[in-house]
Structures are given as C-alpha cells and as structure tokens.
Amino acid sequence: MAVKKEDKYPVARRYQIADVQVSREATAVKPQVVVNLIKKAKHPVLITGGQLLKDEKLVEIAVKFYEKGIPIIATGGSSKPLIEKGVNPQSVVFTLHQVTQFLLDEEWKGFDGKGNYDLVLFMGFLPYYLSRMLSALKHFSKITTVALEEFYQPHAKFSFTNLTANKDMYYSMLEEIVNNL
Amino acid sequence: MAVKKEDKYPVARRYQIADVQVSREATAVKPQVVVNLIKKAKHPVLITGGQLLKDEKLVEIAVKFYEKGIPIIATGGSSKPLIEKGVNPQSVVFTLHQVTQFLLDEEWKGFDGKGNYDLVLFMGFLPYYLSRMLSALKHFSKITTVALEEFYQPHAKFSFTNLTANKDMYYSMLEEIVNNL
Amino acid sequence: RIGKVIEEAEEWAEEMGPTPKPGIIELRKWDMKLLERYEPFYAPVQDFCNLCTMGPCDLSQNKKGACGIDLKTAKARLVTIACCIGAASHGGHARHLLDHLIEELGEDYPIDLGGNVNVEAPIIRTVVGIRPRTLGDLKEAMEWAEKELMRVLHATHIGNEESYLDYESKAMHISMVDHVLMEIADIAQIVAYNMPKAEPNVPLTDTGFGIVDKNKPVIVVVGHNVLYSKPILDYLEEMGRLDDFEIAGLCCAVHDMTRVSGGRAKIFGPISYQLRVIRSGIPDVMISDEQCIRADLLQACKAMGIPLIATSDAAARGLPDASDWPVEKIVNALVTGELPGVFLPVPEKVGQVAPLVAEAIFKKHGGNRKYRFFANDEELWNEINKCTQCMNCVFTCPHNLRIDQGMAHAQKTKDLSKLAKLEEQCIACGKCEQACPKNIKIINVIMASNFDRLYNKKGKMRVGRGPIQDTEIRNVGQPIVMGQIPGVIAAVGCANYPDEAKSLREILEEFVKRRYIVVTSGCHAITLGMITDEEGQTLYEKTPGDFDAGGLANVGSCVANSHIAGAAIKIANIFAMRPLRGNYAEIADYVLNRVGAVGFSWGPYSPKAAAIATGFNRLGVPVVVGPHGAKYRRAYLGKYFKKEKWWVYDIKTRSKVPIEPAPDALLVAVETKEEAIVQLARLCIRPNDTSLGRQIKLTHYLELSQKYLGKLPDDWHLFVRSEADLPLKMKDELLHILESEYGWKIDWDKKKILEGPIRRYDAGFNPTIVEEVYEKYAGEKPPQ
Amino acid sequence: RIGKVIEEAEEWAEEMGPTPKPGIIELRKWDMKLLERYEPFYAPVQDFCNLCTMGPCDLSQNKKGACGIDLKTAKARLVTIACCIGAASHGGHARHLLDHLIEELGEDYPIDLGGNVNVEAPIIRTVVGIRPRTLGDLKEAMEWAEKELMRVLHATHIGNEESYLDYESKAMHISMVDHVLMEIADIAQIVAYNMPKAEPNVPLTDTGFGIVDKNKPVIVVVGHNVLYSKPILDYLEEMGRLDDFEIAGLCCAVHDMTRVSGGRAKIFGPISYQLRVIRSGIPDVMISDEQCIRADLLQACKAMGIPLIATSDAAARGLPDASDWPVEKIVNALVTGELPGVFLPVPEKVGQVAPLVAEAIFKKHGGNRKYRFFANDEELWNEINKCTQCMNCVFTCPHNLRIDQGMAHAQKTKDLSKLAKLEEQCIACGKCEQACPKNIKIINVIMASNFDRLYNKKGKMRVGRGPIQDTEIRNVGQPIVMGQIPGVIAAVGCANYPDEAKSLREILEEFVKRRYIVVTSGCHAITLGMITDEEGQTLYEKTPGDFDAGGLANVGSCVANSHIAGAAIKIANIFAMRPLRGNYAEIADYVLNRVGAVGFSWGPYSPKAAAIATGFNRLGVPVVVGPHGAKYRRAYLGKYFKKEKWWVYDIKTRSKVPIEPAPDALLVAVETKEEAIVQLARLCIRPNDTSLGRQIKLTHYLELSQKYLGKLPDDWHLFVRSEADLPLKMKDELLHILESEYGWKIDWDKKKILEGPIRRYDAGFNPTIVEEVYEKYAGEKPPQ
C-alpha cells in the first residue's frame, strides 16, 4: 500500500538531500496505511514536537488523535497548547532526545507503565532533529516509526511523502487519519 | 529508455551495498541505448580492464567493438589477448587510474590526438576499482560514462543492471550492442 | 628533574593528587562511572563506514564492518576523532601563541592575572598537577597535551577499540585535554597582551553593521587567533593613526581584538556573518587566520575585489608565501589585483601591510562603496523572478528555510517581507546557491530584502573579562553549592541557531531575571551583543558583568571557555577546600554532585564545540544543546526509571544511598527555546542541594514548566526529599498532589511528608560516587 | 639550551641544514613543486560531508558545503585526517615503547645498531636535525612529532584550508613525521630488545597453521607492539619452560616476536588470518595489543572459549582493568570463564598470566582440540544447504567473491572445490556473515572447504633484519644512482590483496630474478613467507637477505619501513655525500631525481599505510598500490602530455632542461599483477640514469611490457636520450621504430640518433628542482 506513481502523490524527496544511508528509506504511505498500522498496534503513541507552537492546525489534529484514544507524549513545549485543549499528555518535560533514549531500552515500561511502545507516530518536529532520532530507532530498535510530517523523513519506517508544495494536502491527510480511527 | 520493471530485467543492485552517494545513481540501460549513445558520440572509446585476462568472451566482444571502429584503451594487461587477436590499442601501458586522470583534464587531446573523449565505455574491471574511477569522472568531468559490466555500477552515467545471476544475459547484451553498431 | 620537583614543592605546598598528567587509563574508571549512569545514545548520520580500503561497509542495524566494528562503536570512534580535532584546534592555537610569546617575552615572563586571582590556571592545576608561574611553565602542560593527543588519535586507527564505552572514555580524555589547551591559550594571551584580568566592569564595544564608519578604510579580521591581527593595532597606534581606520571583524578573532584594544575594535557579528560582510562590499582588506572561516573565503573576497591576507599555517589557502617579500611588494601585488591574496604568516608584517592595503583600496573607491548586495533594485528583482519554486534550496538548507515561499510571495505581491524574515534565521552558508539550477544569488536576495535592518544594526557587547575572581568565587561558592543561587548557566559556542538569533536572548533573559548566574563566551557572547530590545539595549547594557546572581559575565572568545570550567573547579577549591593538584576525579565528582552549573549551546556546530561540551561532561557539568546538536551523533542520557543507577556513597552516614536522578543527562539536545529553558532549570538540581536551595531550584523549575509546558513537570516529585524542599507558595497544593497522585503519606497536622521520597534530606549529606574519595574522607572502604 | 647546542655541535660535525624540526610552512614549497607535477587525483567514496552540524552537505559535482568547502578539498582534508591517524598510530606505539624503555633502561641507554651502521637514524637526522645517541635523544624527536601532529590535525578543523593543495602539503608533512615516528619505534626496540641489527643473514622462522605443535599450550599474540608480548618469552625463559609452549601470532606483533626471539616465535599469518586462527580453536589464550586487530576480537574469542588479555590503552575493549589484581586472581577469572577477558596494561604481569592461563586451558581439553571450524561434516553441509543464492554476501564482500556460486556448486555436486578456491582470496572479514539472512557461518564454510591445505600450510620467513648497513649502501649506492641496478622494489603494507596471495610472490619473483633489490616488511613480508613453490620453498629460502641486486631483504614489522626510507636517504649521504642534517628538501630532491626506488603495496588497507605511502611520496619515492588502494581516494598522477611540467635545473649546464616524465606518478593504483609488474619497472626510471643504467632499466621495462602487455609500452621513446640508452638486443629494431613511428632522425651509418629525444644525455647532468639546491651548488640564482 505504498504510494505509487499513479496515485499522483508528490515524489518522496528527502527533507535534506545529503541525509542518505545505505539502509532502506521510509516507505511513503497514504493515510489509510497509517490508520491500519494504528489499529493493529498493541501500544501506539503519538509524540508531538515543538512545531505545534507555530501551527495551530497540528494542535487540532493532535487533539483529535487524543480523543480517538491515542496517548500523547508532548515534547518541545507542545504540551502547552495541547493541555489548553484538554489533552493530558503522558509526559511533558522530556525532550524527544530523552524519549528516544527511553524507547531504545527494551526494558522501559513506557510512561504509562504498560511496557514499551510498538508503534510511534511523530508529528510537528524540526526535520533535521527528528531525522536523527528516527535514525537511532531505525538502527538500534525494532519499533515501527511513522513520520506524519510535511517533509518526507527517510529514516522512518513509514513516512508521509514530501508535501511541502501542498500544505492543504498535508492537513487533509492528517485529517483522513484521525477521521478513520 | 531506462530499464523498466515490465522488461523483466534484474533489479539494479549495487555491486557493493555500502557504496552510496547523494548524487544520482547510474541509469540501468538496455543494449540499444548504448548503441544509440555510441552512434551519437563524436569521440567514443572503449577502455578494457584486467578481467579480460580471465574471461575470453570479453576479449571476443572487445575485438568486435574494435572491428566496428571503436578505439580501445587497454589497461590492466588486457592488451595482451587483444593484440593477439589483431587489436591495436590506443594505449597499453597506462593504468585506468592514469587514464582517468587524463580524462579529467579538459586539455587532454586523447591518445589519438583528436581531443578528449566524450563517451567512455568500460568493460572488464574489478568492480570496486572501476567504481572509484567512475566516481571521479561523475564529480569532476562532463564525460558520459557507460559501464558494460556484470555488476551494476552506481556511479556511471549509464550502466548495465546487475547481471550476476545470469552471465548469459550479460554476454548476450554485449553481443547485442556490437551487433547493432 | 629532581631539582625541578623540589623547587616546585617549595613553590606549591599542595600535595600531589593521584592523577597528575593522566594518560588514557588513569581516569577511565571515573568515565565508566559516568557512562554507566549517563548511557551514550547514538543517532547515526551515516550508517556505513569507508575509512579503510576493505570498505565501504554497511553497518546498518548495528552490523559489523570488515574490521569487526559495529555501528555504535564506529560512531563513538567518530566522536573521538571529532573531539581530537577540536582539541587539536585549540592546541594548535595555544602552541602558536605560546611559541610566539615565549620568543618575544621569554620563558620567564610571569603569569599574573591580577590581584583577584591567586588560583590561576585551575584546570592545569587539577589535570596536569603543576602550578604555572611563567609562560615557560605552560609549555610543560602543552607538551603533555600534545602527547595525549597522539595517544588518543592512535586509538581511532582501524583495529583498536572494541567497546564504544572505551571510545567515549577516550573522547572524554582528549576533551579534558582540550580544556587544558584552552586555558593555556587564554592565560598566555591575557598576560602577554594585557587583556582584561578577571574584570567584571569591562568596557562595552560596538557591534553590528551599523557601527562601522564607512568613510574610513575598513580592515576586517576573521578567525580565532589574535596573534596575527593585534600587530595591526600596534602599528597604527605607533603611527598615531588608529582613528584613521575602522578595525572590525567576525568571530573570536575580533572578540580578542576587543580584549586587547579595550573595546576599540568593532564587531560585525558572529561566524554566520561572513558572507553578509564580504558581499556587502564593506571590507577594504580581509585578514584571515584559523578555524571556522569559510573555506571559500578567497573566492568570496576575489568576487568582491577585496584583497585577502591569510596568516595562519592552518589555512594557507593555496596562496603564495610572502613572508620574505618586502612590504611594498606585498602591498602592490594586493592593491593592483595582481594577486587576490597572499599567505603572510609573519604577524609584524601583517600589521604593516593590512593598513597600507586598506588605505590604497579605499582611495580607489573614495569611500563610495556602492555595492550593497545588488547594484540596484532591478538586479534584485531579476534574481527573484528567476525562481521557479523547484525546492532544491529548501532541501539543502540546514534549516529548511522556505525560500520558495519567500520568492513566490515576492513575485506575486512585490512584497519582500517574507524574504526579509528569512534573514533573521539564515546562517548564510550559501548551500542554497550551490543547489539552485537558476544560479540565483539567494544569499544576496535575502540580505537585500532585509537591507535596512541588517545594515543599520547596532548593539553593544561587554568585552571579554577573562577569568572569574577568587573573591567572586568566595561570594558565590556557598550559595551555589547549597543551592540558594539556583544555578550557573553558561551560554557558549557557535551560531548555528535553530531559530531567529533573538531566541538566545529570550532564553537567557529568563535566567538573568531569576538571578541565576549567566556566563557566556564565543559567538553566543557576540550574538547577545547584537540583540536589542525595544529600548535599543542589549542584555549586557541591562545587567552587571559580575559572576554573581543576576549577572551576565562574558568571559571572552572560545578559548576563554576554560574560565567557566575553571570557575566550577575553583568552587571546589576555594569554597570547599578540595585540593586541586592532580586530583581530577575528586573535583569532577564534587562538581557533579554539588555545583549546579549547566552548559548551554544553542547553535553548536563544530568539532571544537564537541570537545568543549565533552570536556564539561567529564567534569560533571551537563550541557544542553540546540536541535542541531543532535547531529553530533552522540548524547549522554540517563534513564530516570533505572533506579539501580541512581546512587551515591554518603560519607556522613557511611552508606550507599539511592538518590534522585539529578542531573539526569550530561548532553541533551532540545528542540525549542521553551524546552531549552525548562531543561536548563531542571538540570541545575544537584543531590547536595540544601532544603532551601532545592526549594529555590524547584520553584524555578516548576514555574518555568508551568509557564512553558502548561503544567507541572512529570518528574518534580522525584526531587522532593522532604516538605522543606517544596516551593513555599505551592506547598499545600503540592502536598495534595503527592498524596493523591503519587500515594505519598502526609501528616497534614504538621504538614510533613511521612513516606514517599527516594531519600530523606540530611544536612550532613556528603555524596561521592568515587570509591577513592569515599575512602579518603571516610577512612574505610566504601559499603557494597 | 645553548650548552646543549654546543655539545651537539661537538658531537656531530655536520652543519645544520635549512629546515631542522620543520613546521607546516618550511617544506610547503617542496610539496608544491611535487604537487604541480604530480597532480592530486580524487576519487570520492562519498560525495557528501557530515562533519559539522550545519550538514550533512551535498558536495557532488564539486559543490560547496555550508562551510564553503568543495568536494576536492573535503577529500584532501579526509586524506590529511587519515594520514594524521596513521602517524598517530606509529607515534602512540613509539611513545609507549620509548617511555617504557627509558623507565627500564634509562635516558642514557646508547643507540648502537652494530658496527655496520654508523649513519643511524637517517630520517631523524634529515628531518629533525639531530643525531640521536641515546634513548633520551629520541624523546626530542618524539616531542617534535607530537607538536606537529597537533598542528596538522588543527588544520583539518572546519573552516581552515581552502586549497586541496595545502591539505596535500599537510598530509605530506604529517606523513614525513610518520616516518620519523616509525624510525623512533624501531630503533628503540632494536637497541633495547637486541633485535637483529642490520643483519642480512637472520634466521628463518616458521609460518602457517601447519607449524604449530597442537600438543602444547598455544599462546597467540596479535597486534603491533612487542612491548606487551615480549615478557611472555622472558618469563618462560627464566622458568626454563620455553619448550613447553607454542608461542605464535599474527601481524606485526609476531613479526617483532620473531625478532626478539631469534625466530623462535611462530607466525600464523598476516592480519587476514585472525578469524581463521580464532575459529580454528587452536589458541589457548589470546594476547591483543594495538592496531589492525578485529574490533570484535573479544566476541570472537568468547564464542570459542578463548580467554583474552587486552594490553594496550589504545584498545582496552571495555574490559575490567586488572592491573592491580594479583596474578592468581586474573588467571582464575580467565580460566573459569568468570571473565571472557581482562585489560592488563602491565607487560610484566602479561608475561606471567598468559602462560598460566594457556596451560590451564590446555589441561582442560588435554590437547584434544576437536573444533575445526565445524564439529563434523554434517554441520558443514547443513550450513551449505541453507544458502539460497540471495547474493547479499556477494554485494557486501570487499572482493565480490562469488560465494553464491561456490555454495550452489557444492549443493549440486557435493564438490567443495569452488568454495575451497575462495579461501585463497578471502580476507576473512566476516561481512558476508553479517549480510546473510540465513545466518550461515560463511567464513567457517570457506575455511572448512579448504581445511587440509589451510591447516597444513607451512612456510619460512626470514626474520626482520632491521636497518640496511652502511657498507651495503656503499656497495649499491653508485649502481642504483647510475641505474645499473635497475631499481629497488619495496613491498610493504597490509594483506587486502585483490587476488590470491600467491600473486604477491609472482610479482616480486620477476624482480628478484632480474636482480632488482627487493625489500619487504609487515604483512607483505609475512605473506611472502607463506607462499611456497612446487618444491615447498618460499622466496626467502631461494634468495639471500642482502640489500643487494637479487636479494630479498625483510626489514621487519610496519615500523621497520623506516629503514627503507632510511636506505634511500643513506644513498644520498653515504654515496653522494649530501649532508642530511635538517636538509630534507635537498635529500628528497636527490631521491626523486636519482634513486630508482619504488614502493609497492599490493593489499594496502589502513590509514597507517596511507601515511607510510605519503611519507615516501614526499621523499620522492613513487608508490604503486593494488586496486583497493584507489579507495584511499587520492592519488598523485602526473600527465606525460603536459610538457611544461617536466623540467629540472641542471647545475652542470646552468640551465633549465626539459626532461622525460620519470617517474610520472607518485601514487598509482594498478588493477592486476601484470599491470603491477610493468608499472614497477617503469617507475624505476630516473632522470639521472647513466646510459648504461637507462639501457638496463629500459631493457626490463620493454621486456616486461612485451611479456605482460603484448607489445612495447606506448611511452618508451620518451625515455630515450641517445642510442646508448637503447637495449642492446633490440637496438636496430628500436631505431627503426623511432624513425618510422615517431619521426626521429637517425644516422644509420653510425647508428646514432640525430633528432628526436626530449633532451640529450650528458654525463655530468646534475638535476634538481629546488632553487635553493641549485643556488647552493651553482653559486648563482637558477635560470628562469
């Protein structure tokens, strides 16, 4: 169910041309694939980043995720607008850097004590900062990572394609996910 | 005219998985594309490598290239079997390393004094040795490079796909080129 | 040799500690202690290695390469190499200075840092185990450092370390060496060039494009080593012509020029201003020395017709060596344009040549510098109209700046404001231009779009003060160790900021206002001197320069970072009477457990910054970096949930005590300024805080978390040892939360906590994680 | 200081040359001379850079990154870093040895290399400008080297060099330093450990799996620093128990063990034999020190139940430091398997622990070492049958070995011969196993398939002789410089051979037979000791060990490479009376124009090899590398067609003379053994050859070209200055070709060449490309 040419999706251009690796690049996916991944997951979580402070629409989407029962780990200060909208994040003070370190530890029980997460969604991060964390998870963990970003993230397991030319499409893809959960 | 999936060609797997670059990988091409490139070229040349000493079929092919008017620069000792079969190489003593250095010099007049070459075909090299030379030409020259090798060469401008599983196909592709010149 | 030892012993009564001039092995145990708790985290940029000819090798998913190395170990090796390069940079700088100054002033030239500094060279004392009294004494430390560099770099050769932990230990070792080298360099230049000696009240110096008098010949210096540019000042002073020229510059070279000239040299800006300055056409001559200079400087200057004088052997730039040429010949070659630049590693000659060239070039244009990124508006719009929004620039920009949107908006509306906004964030690296298929001069477009603001920018930076006084340490030592001064925030490093530069001020202003001690250096110090508030004032103008609560102390250029590490060490020595000499582990252990200092680098970019940070880490000082810092690949991140890792030996109770995870990281990258603020406050907490100190630290931590994260932090309860630790204003509320959410037992009559904390507070608490330190003070082996 | 200078002057009458203890600048002019003619060639492996946090940056098509560096300059910087790491490795090694030996023997321990070596330490004399007479004197050279390392590494920091030429100059500088460091290390160990001192007739030592007596406890050493393994010999000798143990090893560690033990230690094989040896299960204890050791050694040993003792601080391998433990505790921990290994950086303790552990482990299995890659045939076939020919292994193998075909053939026919054939080429890097989705133990399959041949392999290596005698130089100096000895071929370096190892012998045998001087060292020397002919003899057994025509001189381990460079220098000094002291450029210029020596590394893989080669290059010695050498990214390749680049000053005729392109490359990678042979012969030609010498060199060049390339080489006519240069047997034929093909004018009566050559031969020809050398001997400025 990867994005195919005939779907007229934009090409999956990396957020940074020089961030290449030997290992497989992320599969560019449609919203429905993400929906299926979430439904199949035993312990999914959404991690939100600091760019929510600059994009209200992302806050709105995150709230909907939360309302559909997806727990949220809020980083980068994204907790503030989320809490204002009634979200109770599992964590607000740890950076994505720290959360990634925790995720890499198979013994970690998660912030909710239910064990480590098996599916991690990322939304609202600086592309270059997120990319390094996805790289760490790609090489040193078995967690399924999904980047729900405007920029295509090559080191995720699954990522939206490059949507920089069409922000509306980006938002509508996010909408499609939360509406189908 | 690149190789497409529907053509049932083998996938273009790099000769070495870790030899990745940011810049474009070689277009995997069919024999006819190579024929067209040669026909269009103003000053083409075939460079043969030391693996001709271990593969008589490649010697045979090189001889046919020569008979069709493609001059040959013989490196790695490949001149010996070629000369035995009547080829008069433009050069026999310079290594591919040196020849590549010459090719990078826009002022070079070629071994034949006709000016630098515009299309360079490579056949019969150790994959890792050839790869470095193709990389140099990719980044520091405008020459069109074509790898006619059993292994797919990512840093050429054009390359045969990975044919390691089917040596007959490799030979027949070479045949197809020389027969259509 | 023996004579020397005796002589030293007479001079310095302090007993020699266990590890003078340590090699790789001597402090390995300390490193392993840190690494056990602060587990290395690796975020590979590339997942393959091509450092030997058996490669390239695919190391993805932690596979092993042909030599047997796996991805983690390969990354740790790369970090070690980076730290080696960083240390070598400060070392090359220090060695140049030292050799030059000894030649000029003699081996016996005394090290005198003024009456307020008796514990000079705290790092050298602690690490090397000597007390340097002369420039010649610094050579002993220098030679030891050079020896260690070779040893550590040796270990990065194929087929050495198997364990990433051992590479981390080596990275820490060479980074500690780096701190020694910075100290050598800065002490040498302070005493030889009479830079401010631990003076809080140093003059302010001008910053920004707006302060350069464009009606004078403009000499611009860039780089890090004042050795080559100081002679320009000397020569002009000698000639009585200082007022006829503008001497301005970028990065640490001008930082130190302001220190030698009492603020006379002017600061264009940090490292990211290089292309801004060159392409503005303002410089009449450019002097480059070493480090962090654009590797296309000659090309860039040539394109603008600015003659270049390269001075350092670290960056000869392919230019002809003019050392032996007469001054006239050099000047002539540069002014006529016969040569675009020369390599002139002779400081005295640079002093003469630079003004002569600047003057001659100035005469040519007569002060009529027409060039301002574009000759006219038409040219600017021609460039803008070329853009097709292909996005190549966006996908190569380090910040993914939306140049496409700025261009499109301008094309559609003739409004440059979106492009102008980019100027605030752009580090002017020029990659966009390399990627642009239309060859648009994107940097110039961005700069021209914000021309008036950029060109008229003015600010003030307090000149680098050098070391912290012993008296200052005496004043703040106790409140820092006890916790009443909530922390020391050291904002250091490069200018690869993730956001508009003003975010740096916003972050630090929080801490200045809350009466933390804020210190700064390098490009961070420069940036702070360029960000003005509505009243047109920089943070320097609003705060004192003391190393004290509410102060903002600029110690100086990159090498002055040593004074920040030195201050932490001096607290252990001057306040706590811990001996320094060859006693590194005890001091670092003291700092880790007691000194609430946190390093902060909002825009770190270089191997030098990596070495500086790692050196702080080994000393027990956590460092918070901006998001680009994640690209250093390695962080040190503890895990609050691994309870077995959070313990100390308590010398008082003779027991092994579980502790709160404080600090819980040694190197962490944050994404936003909000996150930076909260993490900085959080990482100031130390096990040794008194109740009052903890109360103050928690007050700030909780307030800042509420302000920026919207609620109390997740982990605040971990830091509560008793009700006395609770912020007064919130005490009741917090007790309720502890009871209801965390299940603690509260005696509501006495408002006392009965059960819950990781440990109880004990006024005599005397923590250490070093067995030898425990034994030294407890007189027995540590408990198991 | 002054006292010291006077004392030295008394001791060493030679006048100080222009560049003692040179920095980066002093020899830059010489480098630029070389680089002008031998243009750097870059073959990027990766086309992007991620060394700073502004990156990663796309540098493809020579784009510039965020710091302004372009792809070529970035590659030159990487080469500089590699050479720094290489030099640091030899330096770390040298420093360890030196400190240890001085502690043991004192600073005044004399440097005595025997009666036949009066010009000891030729590199140190030439470069550093001192004549070391004691171990303490070596420290002065060591400290200078450490200083230079820091300076050069400094230059690799972001924002320094703009020009790839300047990076190349720095790479050459640190590589010259590398040669000094190798000389320090080898001289120190020769004099302290009484290794052979320039002795051509050293004993032969056993090589190969077949020579290890498996009925004794087997102690295996791996690495490069004999300091840690020599005490094992000392201890066993002291105990009178040498005969009760087998002491064998790999790589330079055992190379030097054979030198200290008079050939008593046995050689398993070169670096590529590590996994072969470990997985064979033969070792009872493994001693590792530093460099080129598998980074998964502990894992590999653990899997086989072999206890590991890591000794060097360059590779502590994450193991607990057992320095302070009693011997019994260490032995017990290792023998019981409580610990898989220990870090024991105390040589004396290693000497005691290793035999005790080996004996205890041996007692456990009683000499009944069942394990031979697989417990039985069934296991082997189970592995083979897992293979699906997915090709993952082939696409990760450094040689793209067709493992798939070997497996398929075995599956189909039960014939292991195709797999066995792979063993001859396999460097046992193990990447195939990392890539295999079926987790097939591919290395074991390959080794087991060739089990009998591998396990019974036997050979002889002549023990490392150390330096070349002054008398030998006196004998061969003139014939080398005049050309009657057609050349010196120095086969050095690592074992990443592109082909079966026997190709190395085939190449060198050509030159031994043709009475070139062949010298060897390191893994090449070991490999030559393992390849036997039909009579079961190695090349050593068939040739004398002299540095003379037709000889095969093994100088020793990697650090003994210094004696090869030293021999070239001594020719200039002993034969030509050129002063050495601080006189590098003149000596290198002499070597380039007169000494027909060529370095050859068939399987170079490491940064050390890069530094060694680059050090030879700066000295004017060309180096031919095998095809993997192309991955060093940079070569130095001249262009025969750029006529303006091929000139010298002739001191005799006081003129600037065009010359033949000889040698026309300083670093070139060949693809095949045939090509290697021809290039080696070709690159021995020097401008200074006499007619007789040129005739001899051309004879070999032409014959070898005809033999291996099928015809005369393309460029032979360029090397003909007069008819006297022509090979006698072919003279007429060649004159005809010159006339008909190249349009030369021939006087057929006298059989003389009238017109055609680039220049005429002149018996007094006195070439130099260094202005200062010209001036020194001509007494005037050089002509334009």
From TrEMBL, chains A, B:
GO terms for biological process: methanogenesis, from acetate. Signal peptide: none annotated. Gene3D superfamilies: TPP-binding domain. It comes from the Archaea. Heterotetramer of two alpha and two epsilon subunits. The ACDS complex is made up of alpha, epsilon, beta, gamma and delta subunits with a probable stoichiometry of (alpha(2)epsilon(2))(4)-beta(8)-(gamma(1)delta(1))(8). Belongs to the CdhB family. Part of a complex that catalyzes the reversible cleavage of acetyl-CoA, allowing autotrophic growth from CO(2). The alpha-epsilon subcomponent functions as a carbon monoxide dehydrogenase. The precise role of the epsilon subunit is unclear; it may have a stabilizing role within the alpha(2)epsilon(2) component and/or be involved in electron transfer to FAD during a potential FAD-mediated CO oxidation. This is Acetyl-CoA decarbonylase/synthase complex subunit epsilon. It comes from Ferroglobus placidus (strain DSM 10642 / AEDII12DO).
